[in-house]
Amino acid sequence: LPGYVASLAPAEKLPVRFVNVDCDLYGGTVDILKYLAPRIGPGTVIVFDEYLMNSTWREDEHLAWKEACEEFGWEYEYLSFSLFSKQVVVRVTESDSFVGPLPR
Asked: How many angstroms separate the Cα of 29 from the Cα of each of 56, 88, 103?
């Protein structure tokens, strides 16, 4: 997404099936997760680019994800992680924030 997430038009009500979060830091990750929350539903796959293995990982994408899960009622499963690339892949299994139609 170009520019700052907060300045974007409202998200459409279509489901998001795949998201690549490459915000690195807490604030940008919070913004994109809040922006997409109504479109994140069961089956959505999210890749976090800098989720672990850096000196502040517990305060950045990881923390933003944990807080969003609590705020939006997301449950998830880990699909993959890489200690080398610092990436994590999750699939949402439950969502209280989802407003779009479920894909067939």
From this structure: 14, 14, 25
Report the alpha-carbon distance of residue 55 to residue 41 in Å, rounded. 31
pLDDT in tens, 3-38: 556 666 566 667 889 999 998 889 999 999 998 999
Strands (E), the chain: 16-21, 40-48, 75-81, 88-94
- The count of C-alpha atoms lying within 13 angstroms of the C-alpha of 8, restricted to the half-sphere facing its C-beta, is 14
Q: Find the radius of gyration of the CA atoms of the chain.
A: 13
How far apart CA 3 and CA 51 sit, in angstroms, is 22
This prediction's pTM: 0.85
Question: What is the Cα–Cα distance from 69 to 15, expressed in whole angstroms?
Answer: 17
86 in Cβ contact with 52 (< 8 Å)? yes
- Entry field: residues in the chain: 104
Q: Which of 3, 55, 70, 69 is nearest to 25 (CA)?
A: 55
